[in-house]
């Protein structure tokens, strides 16, 4: 399993309790199920599966089998619904397997949604729109508040709030965000354009070719009244903003605002925090580093 994102401390054990983990250790907890009795969860937050990575996983399963069991629950119709591991199930089916190892647990609909969200977030498999839609489902269908969602999935409340804001983007922007053409940082720059009529296809394409900082400046410039020009504007030469790109990488990893200021011989890195508890967690994490 890929390394979890920073700050994402919740997992299956936190939701289901240590008794489940203990039972799994004692008995193995894993069954071998016929592929024909396993079905995906239609409410699975992840909707897109990369063909390239699916082919790689299929080849791996053809050679080594399914190393990590999927997690399922038994439904009233006798089938087993996937909670975590739909990629493995799809790849196993493509590889021609007739059986698959599975951990069978008991879980209600809300817990299934939480577990599916957590598994995908910890594997970094969800795109920003799928992540936002998952949070929205937990709030709309199960009545959780933003604070409760943040607690369940191990995120800060501002991170959940910022993710939910992405759902107010125009459909085209959401598509570009879902397929990776725009990053979450670019999306926030689009949201900064208050006049929705200015969020055009051309504007989105220009932003996709910029760093996040450049996109933010561009968004601000769109909302200013143009000054009279005696001569046509000459297009400025595009210069990559490497410092901004580094800050964007840190923001994605840490789930918080990052600012990097660079001088001639030194600079500073500033990290945002959200309340006293978040500050203590941040300081504790920094104390473990050695540079």
TrEMBL record:
GO biological process: chromosome segregation; positive regulation of sporulation resulting in formation of a cellular spore
Disordered as annotated region, ranges: 216-237
NCBIfam families listed in its UniProt record: parB_part
Principal subcellular localisation of the protein: cytoplasm
One annotated GO molecular function: DNA binding
Domain ParB-like N-terminal: 31-121
Membership in a protein family: Belongs to the ParB family.
CC annotations in GO: chromosome; nucleoid
Keyword annotations of the record: Chromosome partition, DNA-binding
Compositionally skewed regions (Basic and acidic residues) per UniProt: 216-227
Subcellular location: Cytoplasm, Nucleoid
Keyword field contains DNA damage: no
Entry-linked InterPro entries: Chromosome_partition/occlusion (IPR050336), HTH_ParB/Spo0J (IPR041468), ParB/RepB/Spo0J (IPR004437), ParB/Sulfiredoxin_sf (IPR036086), ParB_N (IPR003115)
Name of this protein: ParB-like partition protein
Species name: Butyricicoccus pullicaecorum 1.2
Organism domain of life: Bacteria
């Amino acid at each position: 399993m890929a390394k979890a994102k920073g700050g994402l401390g919740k997992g299956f054990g936190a939701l289901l309790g240590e008794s489940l983990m203990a039972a799994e250790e004692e008995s193995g907890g894993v069954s071998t199920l016929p592929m024909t009795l396993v079905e995906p969860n239609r409410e699975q937050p992840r909707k897109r599966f990369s063909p390239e990575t699916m082919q790689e996983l299929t080849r791996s399963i053809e050679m080594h089998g399914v190393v990590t069991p999927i997690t399922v629950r038994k439904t009233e119709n006798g089938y087993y619904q996937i909670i975590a591991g739909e990629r493995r199930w799809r790849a196993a089916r493509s590889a021609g397997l007739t059986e698959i190892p599975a951990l069978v647990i008991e879980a209600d609909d809300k817990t299934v949604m939480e577990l599916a969200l957590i598994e995908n977030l910890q594997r970094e498999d969800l795109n920003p729109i799928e992540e936002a839609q998952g949070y929205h489902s937990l709030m709309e269908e199960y009545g959780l508040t933003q604070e409760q969602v943040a607690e369940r999935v191990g995120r800060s409340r501002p991170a959940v709030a910022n993710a939910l804001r992405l759902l107010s983007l125009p459909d085209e922007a959401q598509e570009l965000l879902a397929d990776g053409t725009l990053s979450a940082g670019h999306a926030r720059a689009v949201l900064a354009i208050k006049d929705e009529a200015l969020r055009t296809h051309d504007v989105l394409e220009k932003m996709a070719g910029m760093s996040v900082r450049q996109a933010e400046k561009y968004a601000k410039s769109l909302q200013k009244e143009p000054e009279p020009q005696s001569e046509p504007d000459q297009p400025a030469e595009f210069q990559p903003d490497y410092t901004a790109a580094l800050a964007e990488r840190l923001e994605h990893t840490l789930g918080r605002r990052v600012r990097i200021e660079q001088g001639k011989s030194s600079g500073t890195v500033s990290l945002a925090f959200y309340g006293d508890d978040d500050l203590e967690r941040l300081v504790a994490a920094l104390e473990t580093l050695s540079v």
